[in-house]
Design a protein that fits this description.
With 289 residues, the protein is of the alpha/beta class. The chain has ten helices and eight strands. It has a four-stranded parallel sheet with strand order 2-1-3-4, sandwiched between helices. A four-stranded parallel sheet has the order 6-5-7-8, covered by helices on one side. β5 (148-152), α5 and β6 (174-178) form a beta-alpha-beta unit. α4 (127-141) packs across α5. The radius of gyration is 19 Å and the shape is globular.
């Protein structure tokens, strides 16, 4: 089966993936395809965590992997996304993981018969990131219902934010958004960062995409860190059991200070660790269903 948007999955299916990830992490569940499954990773924009986390998950499951290089492919000659993916299907590949800058790129691939796992599309969805975020939160608190989450930063351009808000609210969490006015999503109400910081259980920071939007910011990095970032002063205002999350990569000393990245409240590298087990669970589900 395809895993393109969490909105397409029932809550029960989401919980099954999270439980499966927990079983992989604890060692209760062990699966080895013994090289009988081949998965192609088609990434059309730079990625470290998502790309190589998926590849690590594939290798841990005993799959063989193919890394597609768009810059040296026939797409440089004008080949379409559909024809590229159809070619991999014709090779006998068992599944593909795709990241693409285009929103809902997968609508072009409706006639593809092998499973597609969405590694992120445009500013719309990032299902594997949302699932690993959910897993990390559940691992920390043991539940979702009633938790309060503050997502801070470039909401407008963030597929992580858009994907997370929807699924978190479905699971009973209250989600607030904050950040500079120029990064506000007009469909969401922004709250005051300083006011809500002491009230929430999870503070999820988003990377400011300096390579794309630096010219739109009316404040410099130091001012951003003080007003919307997490530094020692702001961390001291958080609830005692509150945690810090970030999908990474992060801009050190912009949205998060150097000495906060690995502080006691930070779960950033725990998210990365959990991402492997969540993606193992996603791959198993895609290949099985």
């Amino acid at each position: 089966m395809d895993i393109l948007r969490l909105a397409d999955l029932e809550v029960k299916e989401i919980e099954e993936i999270l439980n499966s990830a927990a079983d992989f992490k604890s060692g209760i569940k062990k699966i080895n395809y013994n090289g009988e499954k081949i998965i192609a990773n088609l990434f059309f924009e730079p990625s470290t965590r998502t790309h190589y986390s998926f590849e690590t998950a594939e290798l841990k499951l005993g799959c063989r992997t193919i890394d597609f290089a768009p810059e040296s492919s026939s797409m440089k000659k004008g080949e379409t996304l559909y024809d590229t993916v159809k070619t991999f299907e014709s090779f006998g590949i068992d599944a593909v993981v795709i990241r693409n800058r285009e929103d809902e790129y997968y609508k072009q691939l409706e006639n593809i018969r092998i499973p597609i796992l969405n590694g992120g599309d445009g500013t719309k969805d990032h299902p594997s990131q949302s699932l690993l975020d959910l897993y990390t939160i559940k691992e920390e608190f043991g539940h979702f219902e009633g938790l309060k989450v503050l997502i801070v930063g470039d909401i407008k351009h963030s597929r992580v934010a858009h994907s997370n808000i929807k699924v978190m609210e479905r699971l009973g969490m209250t989600v607030y958004t904050s950040g500079p006015e120029e990064f506000r999503d007009e469909n969401l109400e922004f709250v005051d960062f300083e006011e809500y910081l002491p009230q929430v259980d999870v503070v999820m920071l988003l990377r400011i995409q300096l390579e794309r939007h630096a010219e739109n910011l009316n404040i410099n990095s130091e001012e951003y860190n003080k007003k919307y970032g997490l530094n020692n002063e702001n961390v001291s205002k958080m609830k005692e059991n509150a945690i810090i999350m970030h999908p990474a990569p992060f801009n050190r000393n912009v949205e998060i200070s150097d000495d906060v990245v690995e502080c006691d409240k930070s779960r950033i590298f725990k998210q990365i660790e959990n991402g492997v087990f969540v993606r193992m669970a996603m791959i198993e589900k895609a290949l099985k269903d």
